[in-house]
Amino acid sequence: MAATSPYKAFRQHHRAVHPEPPNPSTLYPTITDANGSTLCEQQFYRLRTAIIERNDTAALGKYLIAAPWAVKRGHALGMYHDPFIVAARHGSVDTLKMLLDQYSMFIKPIGKTDLDGRCCRVLNTAAHSGHLEVVELLLDHPLLQADIHYNYNGYTPIMVAADASYCKENLEEKESVINFLLDRGAHASDAEYTWDYSLDSVTGESTKKQVPILMALNFAAEWAGADLIRRLIQSGADPHVKLMEDKEVTVRTDVTIISTAGRCANVDALKILLDYAGKVGDVADAVSYRDSWGSMPLHWACQVSMEEDPREMSTTFMEEKVQRIITTIGLLLNCNPETINA
Q: Number of helices (H) and strands (E), helices first, in the chain?
């Protein structure tokens, strides 16, 4: 019995909805499937995306013959469907190599290229998704101007690798990417800053200072283990920094990384952070520090959120999380028992 084609949804030909002027980049190519049927591209280049997501080099080879321009930067569709972004997001290293080769042959860049302004975003996408092989390819490829220190929309590669938002299924892979970036010279201290404005309580004059709002160590404190937290600190990340947390509708300042680890019940990270706090001062003061809302780490440790629906969580998972919360609260109270009534 013949295997079902993963591309059977593309046997219908969908033309552009609105008339468009002749332009090779708006043509929808067709290719022949492995079973001999004709596959037709659709709006938003869904066929190309499906091929790259599957890391299907045979199908991509046919596609690039039919549409050699397919490596050009997209237009009003945005970057989500860009072929290089798709390959980086899904870890499709083989098809990414083909795309880079095709870009070199079709675009013919002089010297190294930033892929028409896409290279930094492609690198950040791979780092955020935890695809080490793709990150390594991008940094080592002779064609590319991949900058390990470039800040794209507030994030350097190490920062976005540490950020587990919308990407919590591959934390071990993200940790490998962070360690690799550190080996390559990434700055553990990377952060994004903003201006914090306040009124002097005595003079009434407005003052401002730069404060971090995004930081690799603070991201990692939400999920990373002791070894990675320790390495980030030893590599230059400041565990004593105070951050601003801007949630669009609410703003909290003077947030400590100890508070972040406590809020996420990350026991391993919290132990390392408390140890470093004790090396530079009184750890009791560190766990008693209040943010702009008047909350201490203990308060946030008592508000650990259940990201999953409790009705869909296994009993074992629930028990493990509750135990982490209990351990977190115990660690904070041991540092300063008086905070129990604060």
A: 15, 6
User: What radius of gyration do the chain's Cα atoms show?
Assistant: 25
Number of other residues whose CB lies within 10 A of the CB of residue 240: 15
50, two tokens: 């499906």
How many C-alpha atoms does 303 have within 13 Å on its Cβ side?
8
Q: How would you class 45 by CB atoms within 10 Å of its CB: exposed for 0-12, middle for 13-18, buried for 19 or more?
A: buried
Q: Which fold has domain 191-342?
A: 1.25.40
Return per-residue pLDDT of the chain as tens, 342 residues.
Answer: 346 899 999 986 545 444 444 445 467 899 999 889 999 998 889 999 999 999 999 999 999 999 999 999 875 456 789 999 999 999 999 999 999 999 999 999 999 999 999 999 999 999 999 999 999 999 999 999 999 999 999 999 999 999 998 878 899 999 999 999 999 999 999 999 999 888 877 787 888 889 999 999 999 999 999 999 999 999 999 999 999 998 777 899 999 999 999 999 999 999 999 999 999 889 999 999 999 999 999 999 998 876 666 667 788 888 898 999 999 999 999 999 999 988
Task: Give which of 88, 90, 89 is closest to 100, Cα–Cα.
Answer: 88
Provide the whole-model pTM: 0.91
User: Which run of H or of E encompasses 195?
Assistant: strand 191-199
Query: Which amino acid makes up residue 225?
Result: G
